[in-house]
Amino acid sequence: MGDPGGVPSVLAHCFLGHSGGWKRLLAAMRTPLDARAFDLPGHGRSDPWSGQGDLHAQATAALAAQIDGSALLIGHSFGGTLALRQALEQPETVLGMVLIEPVLFAAAAGTPEFAAHAAHEKPLRDAFARGDLDEAARVFFALNGDEAGWTAMPEAARKVMVAQMPMLDATNDTLMNDAAGLLVPGRPEAFAKPVLVLAGATSPPVFPAAARAIAARLGNAEFASIPDAGHMAPLTHPAATAALIDGWLRRTGLNERPRVA
Fold first, then answer.
1. Separation CA 258–CA 62 (nearest Å)
2. 6 secondary structure, DSSP code
3. For the chain: N or C, fewer Cβ within 10 A?
4. Which residues, listed in sequence order, are joined to residue 223 by a DSSP beta bridge?
5. Could you tell me if 71 and 93 are in contact, meaning their C-beta atoms sit under 8 angstroms apart?
6. What 3-state class would DSSP assign to 162?
7. Measured between alpha carbons, how far is 109 from 206 in angstroms, rounded to an integer?
């Protein structure tokens, strides 16, 4: 996707999304990006998830497989947590990062926003415990501020997303408890390459709280709020999101394709 002469980039979409969700943002970008967008395991045209092993690690490996040398990583929501993990585990493969509301909620642990989110999430955990995946999907959309979108969704699309719910349950320990150790003291601070962390101005409070906390821990990060946007900003507010990314790319010098020696 994008411009073959642009900055090499790999884009990781949100949970329940697919690679095509990046088209609006790429069309709004002024900085040319040589972009690779892929479908996460169990999403889009990728194979169904096996239900075995560490899904977060497997999805990060799928991202890593798209990187040819080094790249700018852009991740939204769950995809943002994958970009962060890749950067911390293999920093030499990353030119810089744009994290759009990365859902590593553990970064906000100890805050009122985290406590409120954990309480609001209890119906989701209860639905999983009962094996009620339909209810889990409805609650998940409500937690992300889009219960109306769930209600309006065609039945066939709802069935696909209900089938994907076990993957959400499988990532809970990583996102809520930092099972991958991404927030171990000193680890995010050691990543010194440029990072832009974005959050929607109208998102549920835990999303910007986690985003701000992650930005504060990274060694060279900026935080910015996307006006009037919620959690799905790359799709609903692509122009505003692109403008913030373009400005950051110019400020950091990442807007130019790296020269090959």
1. 23
2. S
3. C
4. 197
5. yes
6. helix
7. 10
Report residue 132 as tokens.
Answer: 């009620």
Contact (CB, 8 A) for 174 and 69: no
Name the H helices within 17-164.
23-28, 55-64, 78-89, 112-130, 133-143, 147-152, 155-163
DSSP secondary structure code for residue 193 in this structure: S
- Do 242 and 128 belong to one domain? no
Phi, psi angle pair for 237, to nearest 5°: -135, 60
pLDDT tens-digit series, residues 75-98:
999 999 999 999 999 999 999 999
For 227-260, what is each residue's pLDDT tens digit? 999 999 999 999 999 999 999 999 999 988 765 5
Residue 257: CB atoms within 10 Å: 15
Sign, CA dihedral 137-129-171-225, equals positive
**What is the number of structural domains in the chain?**
2
The predicted pLDDT at position 237 comes to: 96
Give the CATH number, domain containing residue 193.
3.40.50.1820
For residues 21 and 132, membership in a common domain is answered with: no
CA atoms 105, 107, 109, 111: torsion sign? negative
In a domain, 28, yes or no: yes
Same domain, 182 and 167: no
- 35-39 long-range contacts (CB < 8 A, ≥24 apart) are 35/1, 35/2, 35/6, 35/9, 35/10, 35/11, 36/1, 36/9, 36/10, 36/11, 36/66, 36/71, 37/1, 37/10, 37/11, 37/13, 38/10, 38/11, 38/12, 38/62, 38/63, 38/66, 39/13
Q: Find how far residue 249's CA is from the centre of its chain.
A: 19
Domain of 155, in residue numbers:
112-172
